[in-house]
Q: What sequence folds into this?
């Protein structure tokens, strides 16, 4: 059993706490927002239910998670600290500096950034060797993948220990060879999102069509055969020919995204405002959350190898 302290009790911090507690670890969580902390324990039971944990076990697992009123409460007398605060560099710098002042010198810190450079996140630290990028996917208690990445000064032993601990939890742990913003998963994901927005900007189709195409084709294939294996499967010569013909037409945009700017300028931010790229009528948020969880569980239940 490892004792974890988590700074940030929102969507990711809460999900990581549930995943750790479910694996048998003790977790203390702190968030500066009292409203987040007030609802924290109410969110544990439903998360465990999504994992298929029976109600008889939900209470004991939830009891492994405590909340702390101060940052010191999650930094002292723990084995690992997880930073899960918003993806703003100045906020992470402030929190990490405070954690270093409160924690024992040898305590490793995992940053759950999904897009920032680990090296840049560590710039505010007196001892950057203790920082590792440990990126969980949402929801952390359902999705098995965790990406582990070094910063320029990360002690390799911190990475070794993180990978060993996560693998022992049953996580699918991948270790990157060097620091790169976005790790692997988000770089792949947002390359696809950029091209989807490009198709909207070019008037090729509407948002519903993009989601239909993804769910009814690539989404069905990629859970079984990844893009590198598929490239080999269809043949590298064909893969190269396709890229030579298609790549010149793909988006390389780095700043201008009209299909996002228009709804944002009209205060249409997506789910939270009732409309974004798509309408979000009452009840849709619950339906999408249910469908997302069910889809993940369904894919996890499928065999990944062919007998024989």
A:
């Amino acid at each position: 059993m490892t004792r974890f302290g988590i700074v940030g009790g929102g969507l990711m911090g809460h999900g990581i706490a549930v995943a750790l507690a479910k694996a048998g670890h003790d977790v203390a969580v702190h968030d500066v927002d009292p409203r987040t902390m007030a609802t924290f324990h109410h969110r544990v039971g439903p998360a465990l239910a999504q994992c298929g944990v029976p109600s008889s076990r939900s209470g004991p697992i939830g009891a492994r998670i405590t909340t702390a009123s101060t940052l010191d409460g999650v930094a002292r007398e723990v084995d690992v600290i997880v930073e899960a605060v918003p993806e703003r560099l100045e906020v992470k710098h402030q929190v990490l500096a405070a954690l270093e002042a409160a924690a024992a010198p040898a305590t490793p810190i995992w940053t759950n950034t999904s897009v920032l450079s680990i090296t840049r996140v560590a710039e505010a630290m007196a001892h950057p060797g203790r920082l590792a990028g440990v990126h969980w996917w949402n929801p952390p208690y359902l999705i098995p993948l965790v990406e582990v990445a070094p910063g320029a000064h990360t002690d390799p032993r911190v990475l070794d220990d993180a990978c060993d601990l996560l693998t022992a939890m049953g996580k699918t742990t991948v270790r990157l060879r060097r620091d790169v913003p976005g790790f692997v998963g988000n770089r792949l994901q947002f390359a696809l999102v950029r091209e989807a927005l490009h198709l909207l900007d070019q008037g090729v189709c509407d948002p519903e069509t993009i989601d239909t195409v993804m769910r009814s084709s690539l989404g069905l294939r990629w859970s079984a055969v990844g893009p590198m294996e598929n490239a080999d499967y269809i043949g590298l010569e064909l893969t190269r020919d396709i890229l030579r013909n298609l790549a010149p037409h793909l988006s390389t945009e780095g700043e201008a995204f009209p299909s996002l700017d228009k709804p944002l300028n009209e205060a249409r931010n997506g789910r939270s405002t009732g409309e974004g790229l798509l309408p979000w009528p009452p009840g849709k948020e619950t339906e999408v959350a249910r469908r997302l969880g069910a889809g993940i569980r369904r894919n996890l239940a499928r065999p990944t190898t062919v007998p024989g």
In short: The first strand starts at residue 3 and ends at 7. The domain at 3-175 is CATH 3.40.50.720 (Rossmann fold).
